[in-house]
Amino acid sequence: MDEILEILEKDARITPEEIARMLKKKPSEVKSAIKKYEKEGLIVKYKAVVNKELRKDSDLSVRALIEVNITPQKDVGFDKIAERIYSFPEVNSCYLISGTYDLLVIVEGKNIHAVSNFVAEKLACLENVRGTVTHILLKKYKEDGVVLKHKQEHKRIAISY
Fold it and tell me: Of the candidates 124, 106, 122, 120, which has an alpha carbon nearest to the alpha carbon of residue 66?
């Protein structure tokens, strides 16, 4: 992979001037390369990894990993049903995977009821969906290569008999 892309993947806030210094290139070359990558769709989005557990002003949402078994459609395979699924606003990510299930869908909802309603009322009832298994994310330790800090939890008192 291109060195500029590797640097931006690790830290999207780094400036073209800093990248140029690191790679011993001209800033104009780096800026031009970045614009080209954006135009070609190689760079799709710049994003911050936010540790929502530490935010004081927001309610924590519920995130679920859903394994989905689907029947591929003639001439389009998995793509058409995957497109239908990832079009739902609740869906953050959708992947074609190998193994027992065909798709891994990552969904976020206001609470566990919102997630279960999504699965029951929108996902499971789709024509080509044969089955689902839902895993609720309980705690994040690491996301996008970044280890997340956690709120101080009270130490449990040892109980002895």
Answer: 106
Residue 6 burial (C-beta neighbours within 10 Å; 0-12, 13-18, 19+) = exposed
The CATH number of 53-138 is 3.30.70.920
Question: In the structure encoding, which two tokens stand for residue 121, read together?
Answer: 């009322």
Q: Is 64 helix (H, G, I), strand (E, B) or coil?
A: strand
pTM of the model: 0.75
**CA–CA dist 104, 134 (Å, integer):** 10
* Domain range annotation of the chain: 3-40, 53-138
Token readout for 51 is 């540790």
pLDDT in tens, 110-159: 999 999 999 999 999 999 999 999 999 998 888 888 888 876 666 677 77
Which segments within the chain are labelled E, that is strand? 62-70, 91-96, 103-109, 129-136, 142-143, 146-147
